[in-house]
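Researcher: Here's a chain I'd like modeled. Treat it as a single chain, no partners, no ligands.
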Amino acid sequence: MPAEMVRRQRHNVTEHSDSVRRYRKRAHSALVAYRAGASAPSYNVRRQLVSARAANANVLGLGSRSSGYFTVLVAEWFQVFLIWLALRRRGLSIGTLVSGRWPTLGTFFRDLGLAIGFLVVAIPLVGGLACLIGGNANSNVANLTPKTAFELVVWLGLSATGGFCEELTFRGYLIRQFSAGTGSRVFAIVLQGVAFGLAHGYYQKVMVVIVVQGWLLGVFAYWRKSLRPGILAHGLQDAIGGLVAYFS
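Model: Modeled as a single isolated chain. Structure tokens:
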């Protein structure tokens, strides 16, 4: 009987040690993913979701999908914080990249109309291009779309965050940096589009389509001399994608 108790205790200790090792491994994976995202300006919503899901991070007892959403929210806004610090050293503000707030309700609806018009043109264009090259999005991304009402609500907030943070990063901060480095706004738009595509590398061949979409958004921002319509278009596109996936 005592021998049996000793064997059980040893078994429990072994299981506990294995659990600790698994936890440390997951924590390390999550830390690596976070550092990679914080150091790379091209870290985007879907890429972060894949990294967070792969790290098996669970936040506040939530499932892996919801945990990934909240992880991305924190990482996106931390990235904006880093950009804010960089701008502050130069005596600039985030408003200088965005072109300020909407002065009137009419200007908001004008930009919203422009955003919808952009999507009407851009979505069929990039969709047709994706069909021509015969590429399909990675199935891992489809698994990250919302499946419950709670996840849908968080996804919509995440879409708004992605629209603002990614447009600020690519069409705002990176275009300004590339323009200063190359002396050409055209090259800056081209380079930020390439960076935008590389950030979506998990789409494999469809990454080429994302580059084109980055160019379109860059030209859109240059035409309007503002990030506001692009922010609305980007956020709407992500939100619509989540809604379609949820209700389909």
